[in-house]
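Sequence only, no structure available. Ideas?
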Amino acid sequence: MKQRGTLFYIEGTGHFPMLEKPEEFNKLLREALKYIKTESNNDI
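Reply:
I predicted one. Tokens follow.
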């Protein structure tokens, strides 16, 4: 079965990690988007 999701936890943040720790949030977002792009290319 394919993995359906991933949980990322950024220590020391609340409801708005993108505002509280934008550098760390953006790093995780870039990694997730890179993974999604790679996975979508494998489905072709």
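The two ends are 18 Å apart (CA to CA).
Hope that gets you unstuck.
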